[in-house]
Amino acid sequence: MVKLGNFFFRTRNYLFPLFYIFLFLPLPRISSNYPTLFYAGLAVVLLGQLVRGLTIGLVYIIRGGKNRRIYAEGLVTDGLFGHCRNPMYVGNILLIVGMSILSNSLFAVCIMPVLFIFIYQAIVRAEEAFLEDKFGGGFLAYCGQVNRWWPRFQGMAATFKKHSFDFKNVIIKEYNTTYLWCLGTTLLLAYNTIWFLQTPLTFGDLLPFLLVILLLTVLYLGIRYYKKREQRQEAREMAAASATNGNGTV
User: Fold this and answer.
1) Residue in 116, 107, 123, 105 with CA at minimum distance from that of residue 48
2) What are the pLDDT digits (tens) for 85-125?
3) What fold characterizes domain 2-163?
4) Which of 183, 188, 206 is nearest to 37 (CA)?
5) Mean pLDDT throughout 181-188?
6) DSSP state, 74?
7) How far is the CA of 71 from the CAs of 64, 75, 187, 188, in angstroms?
8) How far is Cα 83 from Cα 59, in angstroms, rounded to an integer?
9) pLDDT on residue 247
10) What percentage of the chain reaches a pLDDT higher than 70?
11) Nearest-angstrom CA–CA distance, 122 and 139
12) Is the separation of the CB atoms in 150 and 51 below 8 Å?
């Protein structure tokens, strides 16, 4: 399982495009009453985004590993990590479940969440093997106190009081994920409400969806530009500090 988890960790970024493709395949539908499915799926998606946002806003942990391998500088046990060992993955699974419901695809609902739960379980086992090897007893003690998946709600209020919520960090770190699921939700709504119309589509049918996609894309590019500008500013400040220290001045 650990070897499989390391493989999935290296290739996980390629799995989500495949997931999106399956959402739009003309497979058997769940129901002809799409509005009910839409609101149910959207609620689950928003819950998943809330979990991810709270995780990042309280105590951010560097994701993505190092050189496509599992890596950690330190053992993070604060914030939501004090209530669940893998809150980001819990948020991801909720996003996948919600998007599967939004797709109105029987295949997506029955197969995709199960598949990704297996994938994340393998990744978590690989990450835990790395953390146990690096942090030893400290990590094992943490595992004894905090569940791998199911969150412990006791003491949650104290956690929120202890940490100040960094909304700016959430926007900077989550804009890409948020854009993708908002875009996917818009496309799935269009796909399930107008794509199957018997009459030929008109520009008026598509216009509301095109406007939403345009707005989402403008916001995405704006936040991306701001993030890149902040990174360039930080790089200049670090370079200036390095040059100052190199000259022997303070």
Assistant:
1) 116
2) 999 999 999 999 999 999 999 989 999 999 999 999 998 99
3) Four Helix Bundle (Hemerythrin (Met), subunit A) (1.20.120)
4) 188
5) 92
6) S
7) 8, 11, 35, 36
8) 12
9) 56
10) 91
11) 18
12) no
